Queue: 3 jobs
Job 1
Amino acid sequence: MRIGLHMTTFDVPGGNAGIRQAVKDVAQYTDGNGFATLSVMDHFFQIGVNGAPERNMLEGYSVLNYLAAVTERIQLLTMVTGVIYRHPGILAKQVTTLDVLSGGRAMLGIGAAWNEQESRGLGIPFPPLAERFEQLEETLQIVLQMWSGEVKPYTGKHYQLAQTLNNPMPLTQPHPPLLIGGGGEKKTLRMVAQYADACNLFLFAGMEAVQHKLDVLKQHCDALGRDFDEIMLTATAGANPATQSASEIIEMCRQAAALGFDEVMLMLPNEYDMRALEVIGKEVVPAAAGF
């Protein structure tokens, strides 16, 4: 099993001038200590589970490009891109750029978006959920067409592209892995089965609920003729080395591995606490590698 770190905050000791170095320190520690992925949120306001909207939040793809410059091996992604925030053609170029400049370490994490407050706040159209899912499916189709090298028009209900030209192409072949986040049983998991290389579910729901989501995903795969085993199963989970022992965190990962998960992406209360990060790097990462 792989272990990733999901970064959710940008409030650091020393104030805003210290953000650059603090982010670099976390990135280089994870890069050098066996973490598989380093992800950031795709939000413009901080979200409620982490604090007030006014707390610091950096733009996700700008952060990932910086992380690409200060790391060498770790895979980089947003968890997850809100489909309404960027035109699909631009999104494909952004992820392609990240892949080229990172030496082939980009993933595209994407979802239907949910944060109406930040969308309204910044003037981003926030259509009804059904429409956002239509936009998500068209975006998946457009990105995959651009990454296929096939240059032709795309005509959808929401997006029309005259020429899906994308040079340079990504270094990762056949394309950067495409991860869809969310556990919606009718639409999200069906799109995972149809388009994605990976899914992401929340372990917070409990192992029984997560097992049910995997069963639904397998049903979609069967209906579409997709091999369920082709899909990388990832899960997001919280961990707090200040209140949990390493063995407790390891046991949570072991249970996830028993369900078939390939990776757990951990969120820490304070990712800039290097002592907590070292517990994950020195104890959890090597233990999970044996699952």
Job 2
Amino acid sequence: MITVRPGSHMYFLLKLLSVSGEFPSKSMGILGDVRTVKAMIHKMEDAQKIRLSNGSIIKTKLFQASGKWNDRTVRLNKKGLEVLNELHPNALGYYLDSLPDNRFSGNELTIDRNHRVGESIAMCMMAGIETAPYMLPELQKDIIQYGISETPSYYVSRNLKKIFETELRKTAYTRITGLLFYPGGSYAVYNIRNAVMKINGYGEIKVRQELSEIVRMNAGLNDVTSALLFGVNGDIALQTLFESDKSRKKQDLFDNIYPSIHFIPLTHDGIDLLRILTLPNWHEKLMSVLFAADMRFNGHSSIEFDAYRDNKYYYSHLDSDIARLIRFNGALETHPQSFEILCFPWQMQFLKGYLCKPIPLKPIGMPKVLEALGII
């Protein structure tokens, strides 16, 4: 007998699919142990007895999978949709509104788009960020009022479109997967997966303007200046930024549209980093953990750095801000000063391959940072 319990693999996957519609089988590791999750899905492709919260018992198929190998996609089985009521009274209605009659497109671009959205939702969900639209306050554009959750929340692009459907063409949202709020700030969210994303400068500028209007109306923030870039590795993320360099207009550059772009790997390290980046006043807290007050630098300089002591400059890449890293690397060639870079162990290989000259790297374990920040 199976029961849908909050916090279980079953609960997370149901909640994820209720919003994204489908999810790539190769990314199941985001949700936990791959073997455990895949075994659960395989079992629920056959009819199983499920105990509902009202005491009744149904026997139904819950999941279905299609495609081969790396292209395999997991969806909800039409016969088991009533189980969505176990998540929230409005979950089933939202799902059917998004996917009438549980029909899916076989178009590869549409499936890839759904997978990008699904992975973004999964990363946020596993970091403790609320992602279900039916569990979040609705966003609006009519009056300035604080109407968002007090805790981090993620709104998928499908719902953002509805707010500005008369002013903004749907194609303007083809790159963004959602908007993330955290106490005191917000991020535009993108997911490049394992391929370089071509940036439409005008479209992303327009998107940022509309997102800024949303955060101004609903969260009391001035604008959106930061983005999260999910992906398989940092090299592909950098290539995406360099791809925008081919634009003839400087204002169309992705790292000019968003001065801060935090790369988040689609791994459990990325989930932990996401937990850090959604803390209230996270940057100040992180800097205070890393550097003594008399080392901190808060002024202006021709090169990016965070602290200074005994003729040595310190730069932190723990926030994985690749837009800032590009600026740092560009100025590094003309600066003879001695530098040290603080990073997580999983960032070391990427930094060694990217920096224009050798710089000592000081790895800092993620558990130690999480503990110092009070996350664990």
Job 3
Amino acid sequence: MDEKPKLEDLSDDDFIVVCNPTHAPRVKNVTIRQCDFCGGDVWLADSTKSALPEKYYIACGTCIEPTMDEAQFQLPTDEQIKDMAEHLGRSFDELKAEIVSVFEKRNKVVKHNNRAKKYEEN
């Protein structure tokens, strides 16, 4: 049996896709995969699969939660946003604008906080 990776052992360059557990709501066209860190079942949407690099890790929300304050997030692709908009019954353009705004603000704060933390450590 392969040993599971640990989040703290990954580098900033490692790509982690965060997926909802199978007891949570989901968009259409998903497959069940397992969290690479705890082995729990999660939904992986086809729209997400098409945007993944060759090497990536899958994490459930429970496993990724302790690192959320330090992580920067990649914006979802248009295909992922279309899936979310359809699932939520929202306009694609409005949802995309909202997501872009939230992600950009959040990533700016995280980047600033990470720089401040590194400065304090030196």
